[in-house]
């Protein structure tokens, strides 16, 4: 599975969009990009995933570049409750290779 | 919504005790997983199961065993707890679907072994 690289931390003002980048330059054609977040002392929460096309759900949008080497998770109107560690994972259908890495600590500030 | 529940949020046990951690999912998922999460080490897979009564070792199975007697329930057993098993334990479930497999996690059990 492809290695992903994320900045260790980011700040965002409450009410503004939070754009979290992820690099996955070695991603292969059948690997999906998944995003999870983990609020302190809780289990990881699934946010969104995609293969090639941009995706949107009630929580976030996922923008994947045409070459699939990077992606951006967008939280359109960040709230204080969105403060968490966000993990980007590139994963093929191989359920014993779910590697979370260090993620990005998003701090949403009032 | 998928719901994965774990029997305890916090647990304190003594060295040598037998510890049972239970996980239940309500979405009829085929696959279930046990991970532990430690600072600086990320999530590490202990065991997983792709069917009732089936189990496969993950990356760090030593000191642990599992049981899956019913599809919705996956138990993690620490036969003789040790202090190095103090950790956050996370259960997850998933259903393979056309090359995709989203894992849904429980709230976690923070285990302290004294």
What does this protein structure show overall?
The complex is a heterodimer of chains A (110) and B (114). Chain A is mainly β and 110 residues long. Helices cover 0% and strands 45% of the residues of chain A. Chain A has no helices and nine strands. Chain A has strands spanning 9-13, 18-23, 32-38, 45-50, 55-56, 61-64, 70-75, 84-91, 104-109. The radius of gyration of chain A is 13 Å and the shape is globular. The mean pLDDT of chain A is 90. Chain B is mainly β and 114 residues long. In chain B, strands 2, 4, 5, 6, 9, 10 and 11 form a seven-stranded mixed β-sheet that branches. In chain B, strands 1-3-8-7 form a four-stranded antiparallel β-sheet, with no helix packed on it. In chain B, a hairpin with a 6-residue loop joins strand 5 and strand 6. Chain B is globular, with a radius of gyration of 13 Å. Classes of the chains: A mainly beta (110), B mainly beta (114). Chains A and B meet through strand 3 and strand 4 of A and strand 5, strand 9 and strand 10 of B.
TL;DR?
Chain A is built from no helices and 9 strands.
Question: What descriptors fit this protein?
Answer:
heterodimer; A: 110 residues; mainly beta; 4-stranded antiparallel sheet; B: 114 residues; 7-stranded mixed sheet
Q: Any chance you could write out the topology, listing elements then pairs?
A:
The complex is a heterodimer of chains A (110) and B (114).
Chain A: E1 9-13, E2 18-23, E3 32-38, E4 45-50, E5 55-56, E6 61-64, E7 70-75, E8 84-91, E9 104-109
Parallel strand pairs in A: 1-9
Antiparallel strand pairs in A: 2-7, 3-4, 3-8, 5-6, 6-7, 8-9
Chain B: E1 4-6, E2 10-13, E3 19-25, E4 31-38, E5 42-49, E6 56-57, E7 64-70, E8 73-78, E9 87-94, E10 104-105, E11 109-113
Parallel strand pairs in B: 2-11
Antiparallel strand pairs in B: 1-3, 3-8, 4-5, 4-9, 5-6, 7-8, 9-10, 9-11
